[in-house]
Every structure is written in structure tokens, then in C-alpha cells.
Write the C-alpha cells for this entry.
Amino acid sequence: MSEEPVCSHLDEIKVTELPSPIRGCEECLKIGGHWVHLRMCETCGEILCCDSSPNQHAKHHAAEVGHPIVRSAQPGEDWSWCYVDEVAFVSRR
Ligand SMILES: [Zn+2]
Ligand SMILES: [Zn+2]
Ligand SMILES: [Zn+2]
């Protein structure tokens, strides 16, 4: 495992800019759920909740819609995570 982890889905990144204001996880808002941390899908820009949240909408979005990469939507955090490659990285435009 000495190889540097590389995400092979970088061409799926269409949106890197966070919306403003961020209202919360769009799926949780629909069902009245709550979330721990927020992520943004970098393919469609939807705000979703993290794997520590009860509904894990970011993970489900990746599995169901097939958008592999999310980024943190937490203030001051700019890392991305690929659910397919299970690798974290910082995307630079
Ligand atoms: Zn990937
Ligand atoms: Zn959610
Ligand atoms: Zn998406």
C-alpha cells in the first residue's frame, strides 16, 4: 500500500463553489431530519449530510445517484472525498 491514493473520478467534479447561504442537508430538510456535518456533491452541488449523521444522505446520494465525490461544506474545510475510491484529497481549480 505504498502507492499514492488517486481518485479516478476528477472529471465528475462540476461544482466546487459552496452555495451561500447553506440552509442544511437538502434531504434532511425535506423529511425533518437532522445532521451532524454537511457535505456538498461536487457533481450536482446538492448539500447533503455526512456519514456521522443519522441519515447519511451524502453516502446514499453517491450510491443511488452515482455522483462519487463530495466536499466538506463545513466552514474552513476544503477537502473532498471520493466514495468509490475511498480517498480524501483537496481539489484545486
Ligand atoms: Zn474517485
Ligand atoms: Zn441528510
Ligand atoms: Zn450529486
In short: The chain has a mean pLDDT of 93. Strands lie at 38-41, 47-49, 69-72, 79-82, 87-90. Residues 41, 43-44, 46, 61, 65, 67 surround zinc ion (ligand 3) (CB under 6 Å). The CA atoms of residues 81 and 88 lie 4 Å apart.
